[in-house]
Design goal:
The complex is a heterodimer of chains A (252) and B (207). Chain A has 252 residues and is α/β, with parallel strands linked by helices. Helices cover 37% and strands 24% of the residues of chain A. In chain A, strand 6 and strand 7 form a beta hairpin. Chain B is an alpha/beta fold and 207 residues long. The longest helix of chain B is centred in the last third of the chain and has 12 residues. The chains are: A alpha/beta (252), B alpha/beta (207). Chains A and B meet through helix 2 of A and helix 1, strand 8, strand 10 and helix 6 of B.
């Protein structure tokens, strides 16, 4: 059977990982290449590189870093941030990315997912969506979660999957940073609406949160987190052993 | 030297990098002379069978690969490259492959339960059918590798080297003498994948 996946997410600005602490054996914690290699050795099933650069110089640097990582790390790589066109897909796929995640780019240009899926296949296109409860409804937020688009989230996600998104990353703004666990209610609603893999993001504070996630919602395929891995609060190998002891299939 | 066949299909950046990472000399080429001189050949591929088979045929690479395989040169097809080794494919119609592995390519959806997602994508476990298959030299039965596919190798019992379980037993690797195929992506399967490529690089030509 397919395993549940554990995915660390690296935010990269001007060629450097934005947050993190020193791990044993790691020279430069801000080096995306070194951190990616570290996670790959420690059982990460996949990596997400998120480009939060604003400048074009920074974008070039990001692409160079991505190539350098793909030369040294041999697990699937997903790239997001600043993906607004098919040319952006091509730019990162050429550097060894396997999947490309779109967020605001798909909101601005609703045809992007369809175009990219036709060119590169559904398996290559990941919808990333920032969702927050407003007046009892799930709403899609844009611009890194700062702007309410007014769109209802579940119907937006369904539409994107129909257009060819092969996977959905659900970032709950309500639980993000709170470290009290994933947003199970929101994830359940998404899992019931689409049949493509769903990746949970936002809220993981400890190993137990991942166990609860996969036990409560067996349809969720993967758990994504950033700071708890970067700050060494959760070790991926130990997390996967714990999952396995709880009857959840993981790659050990 | 490892020659990765370049016929305009798919992304081979990671594949090339993975050979470099295990210290193998590697080139990406469509040049006949280079392919003849190479010690071993990799047939990559991502996308649709029909399009890829047509490109191989039109470039003259199909007959060259068949000739080199017959001469005993180690050949490995990866993902769609593995599927191209088969006699034919039923992916959107019926298309002829290289015929180096007996069997045909069929849709996964015909054999798996309805509630299983397609493509079969993610890390899944290998079950050896031929434990002595030389490309498994450095890995173990039960190791995990990374899959992304919607079609699979069928009617190929005699050549099946490993399978994986996804609501049905799916072909994961095939071999027939010096011809090998992996449905999964060794270049995305971490250390296990690199160990498979290392074993392939160490194979001797069959005379």
């Amino acid at each position: 059977m397919i395993t549940k996946r554990i995915i660390p997410c690296l935010d990269v600005r001007d060629g450097r990982v934005v947050k993190g602490i020193n791990f044993e054996g790691l020279q430069d914690v801000s080096s995306p290449v070194e951190l990616a290699q570290y996670y790959s050795k420690n059982g990460a099933d996949e990596l997400v590189f998120y480009d939060i650069t604003a400048s074009s110089d920074g974008r070039k640097l990001f692409t160079d870093i991505l190539c350098e990582t793909a030369r040294k790390v041999f697990i699937p790589l997903t790239v997001g941030g600043g993906i607004n066109s098919v040319e952006d897909f091509n730019r990162v796929l050429k550097c060894g990315a396997d999947k490309v995640s779109v967020n605001s780019g798909a909101i601005r240009n609703p045809g992007l997912i369809y175009e990219a899926a036709k060119l590169y296949g559904d398996q290559c296109v990941v919808l990333s969506v920032d969702v927050k409860r407003v007046g009892g409804e799930f709403k899609v937020f844009a611009k890194g979660g700062r702007e309410n688009t007014g769109m209802e989230a579940i119907s937006w996600i369904k539409r994107c999957v129909e257009n060819g998104a092969g996977e959905v990353v659900v970032n709950s703004i309500d639980t993000d940073g709170v470290k009290q666990g994933f947003d199970l209610e929101m994830l359940d609603a998404v899992c019931n609406a689409v049949s493509v893999p769903v990746i949970a993001s936002g809220g993981a504070g400890c190993t137990g949160d991942f166990v609860t996630l996969f036990k409560t919602l067996p349809k969720v395929d993967a758990g994504l987190a950033a700071s708890i891995f970067h700050f060494g609060e959760v070790n991926i190998n130990e997390l996967k052993k714990e999952l396995s002891q709880n009857g959840i299939i993981t790659r050990l | 030297m490892v020659a990765i066949v370049d016929y305009g299909v798919g992304n081979i950046f990671s594949l090339k990098s993975s050979f470099a990472a295990i210290g193998a000399e590697v080139t990406v080429t469509s040049d006949e002379k280079t392919l003849r001189e190479a010690d071993r050949i990799i047939l990559p591929g991502v996308g649709a069978f029909e399009d890829a088979a047509k490109k191989l045929e039109e470039s003259g690479m199909a007959s060259l690969i068949k000739e080199l395989a017959a001469s005993g040169k180690p050949l490995m097809g990866i993902c769609l490259g593995m599927q191209l080794l088969f006699e034919k494919s039923y992916e959107y119609g019926e298309h002829e492959g290289l015929g180096l592995i007996k069997g045909s390519i069929k849709p996964i959806k015909d054999v798996i339960p309805e509630d299983y997602k397609i493509p079969h994508i993610g890390w899944n476990k290998l079950t050896f059918k031929k434990a002595d298959c030389p490309i498994f030299k450095y890995i173990n039965d039960g190791d995990y590798v990374y899959f992304v596919h919607s079609f699979y190798g069928a009617d190929c019992e005699a050549s099946t080297a490993a399978t994986t379980e996804y609501g049905a037993e799916l072909t994961a690797a095939v071999m027939d003498k010096n011809v090998f195929g992996c449905q999964f992506h060794p270049e995305k399967s971490g250390q296990v994948g690199l160990d498979i490529l290392r074993a392939f690089v160490e194979l001797k030509e069959e005379k």
